[in-house]
Design a protein that fits this description.
six-stranded parallel beta sheet, alpha/beta, 3 domains, Immunoglobulin-like
Length: 475
Amino acid sequence: MSRGVGTSWVMGPGAAPWDPPELGDRGRAMGAAGILGWLLLLLVPVPQVAAARPCIPKDFGHGSLVCVCNATYCDTLDPLVLPAPGSYVKYESSKAGKRLERSEGSFQSSLRTPELLLTLNISALYQHVKGFGGSLSDAAAMNILKLSQPAQDNLLRSYFSESGIEYNLIRVPMACSDFSVRPYSYDDVPDDYELKHFRLVDEDVKMKIPLLRRALAMSKRQLLLFASPWTAPAWMRSNGDVRGKGTLKGHAGDKYHKTWANYFIKFLDEYSKHNVTFWAVTAQNEPLAGLFTPPQAPTIAFTAAQQRDFIAQDLGPALARSPHRTRLLMLDDQRIHLPHWAKVVMNHFVSGWTDWNLALDQEGGPNWVKNFVDSPVIVDGSKDIFYKQPMFYHLGHFSKFIPEGSRRVGLHSSRRCLLCQLEHVAVVRPDGALVLVVLNRSGRDVPLGIRDPAMGFIETVAPAHSIQTYLWRQQ
């Protein structure tokens, strides 16, 4: 539930003021004044900040625990407060059951020889971080809206508020994806090159747009939206269907590609009428998936070179001519295609991460292609319950502590632990604080040291199958 500041009033002890006879007139006067002052202090509203709420665990027998939320209860986090200089805070989640559990410690001036030493180098600066988030697909919206209004609020707060993991990115499909209940586009009238029949659908107007506005309202961070298309209308596609393998008809610069570029602009126009603005669009969801997609899935196949030409000749100019100050993102696909794709289109660092569906049902849908998958949040609408899976907390180890504008810094490993399955990254936040995330994939605890040359050492352990986030101020 939402956390914040409340007020309370405390009444005085008894109906009459304290007036012991041995004080005399002066003592009685002083005593009365003192008691009056005490009562006035008690009558002043006292701010009370609710403590973080713990996870209510449930074991479905799959090797780890989920946290149960409903209309009246959901686990929460305290708003992030930087520790005092010389101290650090640690948040830990683990297969054993910890979920963003907070603890504190202090830097040391020396360290015993650790199995592994991680040393920060803040003079080595790399990419700026744009952020972390998830996707509001048709399926995600449908599942969220199956819950009662209070449970919906708890779910949205879990993702977007200070009491949650504070996502700052939301990805929105343009028209249908495989995680819809039907195939559709925004203009199914053949040969409508002027897009006169372009219309948003109920999935946008009645589901996604209202949820987006609620998420925007509860986020203290700037919440950035970006849109991704799965498929063009059937009449623009080589196979004449929004489903299945296919490409855009023609080639970059022709009427099909110009119309497809203008389809993006119409989408931005229509959403802006509902006071929803997009920070960016991507040129295509999983452009290489069109070469090996399931037979019914909606997709358009692009090679890196084809997408580069479409961007250069059609989509880029259309965005530049439009009134929208919308960015254009490339790739929007699996990590396996990096760095090749970036090198072909414009060689650049990856600067953000967006997960797929924000919420799915217990089957992993709905999905009209029967392409069921997992999600950080699973909804059981029949019981007005949702479950926050380990994946939710794993993503929170990044999204909660690494805000937009953070920058990756150098991190050197002593490499003395050759068998450790550790992954780690360090960033400096816009407020100057340092964040270090350590993931232990192995089944054994790994002792390690962390060295900040300006602060000293942290002697710690990365437990088996755990992820930790360390945060501290620079002096």
